[in-house]
Design goal:
alpha/beta, binds 1-deoxynojirimycin, 454 residues, 17 helices, 40% helix
Length: 454
């Protein structure tokens, strides 16, 4: 990416609503999650992120833990409503000061801040104007990006615009599982899809224009990944095909196809299947708008947890391989498929030709504090080793992987699952806010000290 030798970033990730707490403090405005989580029946046991890990008040302790861990990058999100309570206009200096303190504390410890501008913390005031369905959101988001770039110029050099646009659009506006909890149709979905793409592109421009000095920018999608059942070229091709193409007309499925957001951003066009299967629902995108959407990125961020095994079936078409009975799963039921790491990286770098940051990877377990006062999480250690081993294979295959961020630095508010799923390498005792590094924390520390992937 640079002429100077870039060092692999060993990182950990969190997001504002999931860890900060202080939901109604420090002049912060309401976000859609503040409201949604308080609606009955939305979240496991009607829990909410009002306090979460209370990182707002534990910021120095958390940074000290990161330093002990030895990470060289921390990926966190800024709560849009903490800095712009209504989404536009009035700036909340107290909120900016809090993030400024966090950034300074990180830099002092030699930890590079990787800022996500949007990890689902949409100011409620903007939702009242239609949220992501309102085309005006793109300018609002760009204004917010400009403010952040101005204030953090010279200190923050890496940005992700939007985290998992698939969840924002499909879970937020189609299935209604996530805030704002709406159920809309195809036309609205593709309007939202367009607004997200434009917001992303305008924010990329704003970050570059308003930062004094260079910044590197990308985004952090998720997506449904597929890996081949063997190294036979036809199986590899089947997995590649399934990753970037789908014939599904169900947004619940088609919405997760990797190409749906990445092809427009990198290639300036809709995937061919989107045009074919959803043509009647697509809003027009002008030439100028495509230019905004395709603003060049410095790296590709990828959240990656698992994938589906496929082989070449009849006519070479991808055919899913049935998972054997008792297939390994994490506590929240996600399959453990380390191979997805290698193949996702391979397919993404072949297609988009950018350095890749794995912006999230990790697993939930029902961890508890043992009688010896420690938190033993052997499954997470094994998970980490397996996935990092596959990441290393991707590097050996020739991919340019710039860094890895474990999800998550600490147990936190897992959206609709509340506090029932623990993804952290630091255990959080929610009633007291006490932090206990898990065994996996020390394992990751050793990996980082070794400085090598497996
Ligand atoms: C993706 C999301 O970005 C993050 O917020 C979430 O907690 C993890 N995956 C685990 O579900």
């Amino acid at each position: 990416m640079d002429d100077e030798k870039r060092k692999f970033v060993w990182g950990a990730a969190t997001a504002a609503y999931q860890v900060e707490g202080a939901a109604f403090e420090g002049g912060k405005g309401l976000t859609i999650w503040d409201v949604f989580a308080h609606e009955k029946g939305r979240i496991y046991m009607d829990q909410n992120g009002d306090t979460a890990c209370d990182s707002y008040h534990h910021v120095d302790e958390d940074v000290a833990l990161m330093a002990e861990l030895g990470i060289t990058g921390y990926r966190f999100s800024i709560d849009w409503a903490r800095v712009l309570p209504e989404g536009t206009g009035r700036v909340n200096e107290e909120g900016l000061a809090w993030y400024s303190h966090l950034v300074d504390a990180l830099l002092e410890k030699g930890i590079e801040p990787f800022v996500t501008l949007y990890h689902w913390e949409l100011p409620y005031a903007l939702q009242m104007k239609g949220g992501w369905l309102n085309p005006g959101i793109a300018d609002a988001f760009a204004g917010y990006a400009a403010l952040i770039a101005e204030r953090f110029s010279g200190r923050v050099k890496h940005y992700f615009t939007i985290n998992e646009p698939q969840c924002v659009s499909v879970l937020g506006y189609v299935t209604g599982e996530h805030a704002p909890g709406l159920r809309m149709g195809r036309r609205e979905f593709f309007q939202i899809h367009k607004n997200i793409l434009l917001a992303h592109g305008l924010a990329v421009r704003a970050l570059r224009e308003h930062s004094r000095g260079p910044v590197k920018v990308g985004f952090a999608p998720c997506g449904a990944f597929y890996y081949p059942s063997s190294e036979r070229p036809e199986d590899i091709e089947a997995a590649r095909r399934a990753t970037f193409h789908t014939d599904s007309t169900e947004l619940k499925e088609a919405g997760w196809n990797v190409a749906l957001f990445t092809d427009p951003i990198y290639f300036g066009r809709y995937p061919e299947e989107t045009l074919r299967l959803f043509g009647d629902a697509l809003p027009g995108i002008s030439r100028d708008e495509w230019e905004i959407i395709t603003e060049k990125l410095d790296f590709h961020g990828q959240n990656l947890y698992n994938g589906v095994e496929v082989r070449a079936g009849k006519d070479g078409r991808p055919e899913r391989v049935r998972r054997y009975d008792g297939f390994p799963r994490t506590a929240n039921g996600w399959p453990v498929t380390p191979e997805a790491m290698r193949w996702a990286i391979r397919f993404l770098s072949e297609r988009y030709r950018l350095p890749i940051y794995i912006t999230e990877n990790g697993m939930s377990a029902h961890d508890e504090v043992s009688l010896d006062g420690r938190v033993h999480d052997p499954n997470r250690i094994d998970f980490m080793d397996r996935y990092l081993g596959e990441l290393n294979k991707a590097v050996r295959d020739g991919a340019d992987v710039a860094g890895y961020f474990v999800w998550s630095l600490m147990d936190n508010f897992e959206w609709t699952l509340g506090y029932s799923e623990r993804f952290g390498i630091i255990y959080v005792d929610f009633p007291t806010g006490r932090r206990i590094p898990k065994d996996s924390f020390y394992h990751y520390q050793r990996i980082i000290r070794g400085g090598e992937t497996q």
